[in-house]
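So, could you explain the following?
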Amino acid sequence: MVINTNIAAQSSAHLLSDSSNMLSKSLARLSSGSKIVSPEDDAAGLAVATRFDALINRTKAASSNVGNAISFNQTQDGFLKKVSKALDRMSELSILSQDSTKTDSDRSLYNAEYTTLGAYVDDVSTKDFNGVNLFDGTALNITTDGDGGTFTMSGVDLTSGTYTAATGSSVDTVANAQTALTNVKAAIDQLSVDRANIGANISRLNSTSEQMGVLTDNLTAATSRIQDVDVAEESTSFAKFNILVQAGTAMLAQANQTPQSMLKQSS
């Protein structure tokens, strides 16, 4: 029996230290919900998860941009529905003013309504969405992914000559009414094209929004597989290391008592 160097106690202490470290890591994983509590646990996994987390956040930001763009288009179409009704009535008034049984006094009454509706259309052309003009014809580049890709959203220009020719016309005479009808019909044709483009924009952006939602879900699942702890498996490991720590503590105490017992017997 060697009493100057207690090899058994040193070995027990080393094993107890290992078990204690593993127990601490298991406890940290269970309490944090992550199986990567420090870089050495999975260096490559941590790097991948970090990149995924950043991409997820960027994708969510892009999704927010797309949602705002959809609202922008919906606001445009809401105004254009009213513009459509105004142009429809203006075309009707231009026909009524061509009635040969009407006098110029009657036409002046039609013209007052026509002019008021034209002023309404002109006023709509100045509306904005959060400070961005809705109808100045500017195409907007919408961020559609986490890497900065964009979709160019076509604009609507209510200040174009097609619209201003209609709103600037009058129906106070038969000749003017005929000209106004031509101009309003052109404006209605242009409006139908503009509303179709808005519909195409919304359809495209809705598809992009759904795509980013699926991408975010998949990236989150991938990150979860890398980082999230399996509670059932880790609980089993925790119980194992807890038992080893208790057993190691008891054996270390026993190893420290053995030389003393030998001394007592020799005395």
Remarks:
- The two ends are 15 Å apart (CA to CA).
- Residues 7-33+229-266 form one domain.
